[in-house]
Amino acid sequence: MPALVIVAHGSHLNPGSHGPAFAHADTVRESGAFAEVREAFWKEEPSFREVLRTLDSDEVYVVPLFISEGYFTEQVIPRELRLDGWDVSLWDSSGTDADTATLTAADVEKTIHYCGPAGTHPSMTDVIVQRAESVTGDPDVGEDVGLAVVGHGTDRNENSAKAVKYHADRVREMERFAEVKALFMDEEPEVDDVADYFESEDVVVVPLFVADGYHTQEDIPEDMGLTDDYREGYDIPAEVEGHRIWYAGAVGTEPLMADVILERAADAGADVTEALDIVRRRTATPAAGD
User: What is the pTM of this model?
Assistant: First the structure.
């Protein structure tokens, strides 16, 4: 059987940033889909550079637990994994549709199926919706409710905003929510003005981030007016300028993210059909009151 490696950023400053990678790896590991499942990080151990050496399997699926295509997925990870012949053109992507490149990792004689980031996979849209269900406790949330998908936004990586807009568009096409907007921290339209962009009294805000950290726990709640000081906490929902704001926290913490990781591997050729069924059952949103 092949192995799976989930690669994530990690952090020396935020001790909880690795939590989603470990949690989703555990879920996939318990499904029995792979002979080995490993986590690897840029800012923590085990590192990108060494992780392939820890595996016995000769075939490895690598799924980046990142939101968008960019510097890390296109340059850092392939370099650190020593993927012979890597070129971003192998993904044939316009910014949100990276698929798979199958290459050889130098020095370890392993076949590597290098997948696009989890954050741009179409099934990520379902995770965003489930995040809205989880924070409201309502598996049917949507009617008369607005949804804001929030990203960082940056001039340095236009694909960051593309991923947010891509999923906001896909949720809008479902016609489930009364309104759907893509908002950002560092570009227009800004999440600071969330109340100005919605007519719906209830608005669910889902940050398109892998892990909860400085931005999702401090910046966004204060910017939206949920609280003047994040250390004092805030209500969910919180009243902001005549709206009830249901703030969901980082989408990457939603258990269904394990499904996205498996979907990426499946698209690259991994036989994970049974594992997908197992993971979807385990990570389904419970009905309100359960």
Answer: 0.93
